């Protein structure tokens, strides 16, 4: 959907903070599927944690991303997703799993995807993000290739204040609407 915008990129690059700032300005937002899944798995048996079984985690992330997409389908104004289906599909591909051939065609976001680059100065590991910056950088590189392979145009966000990043994104939206 043309009004669905994805924030993707390096783990620890400021996506969640950016999403909160967009919500603060009144935009509809959707939290990252992966963080929600990790929280549920940590409270449960942990079988689908990304550091335990990446393929199982990615499959759950695909299901959650599709549910998020469907839930937001009625919005006419911009909706911002912290990651989404394409990120989950990239994780599944990295884990060696197979994706339904038409899945990414059925659930299309706006062609522009806003990418947070690796930013060591703000990267922090936590209970839900146990990997290090080097793994985050590798994931970022995979996403920079995966998105264009599926018809998306990555827009790299500048390393600046949260408010300046929000203005950067909104400037891109105004230019295309």
Automatic annotation (TrEMBL):
Domain NadR/Ttd14 AAA spans what residues? 5-165
User: What InterPro entries would the database entry show?
Assistant: NadR/Ttd14_AAA_dom (IPR038727), P-loop_NTPase (IPR027417)
Per the record, the domain of life is Bacteria
Report the Gene3D superfamilies cross-referenced here: P-loop containing nucleotide triphosphate hydrolases
Q: What is this protein called?
A: NadR/Ttd14 AAA domain-containing protein
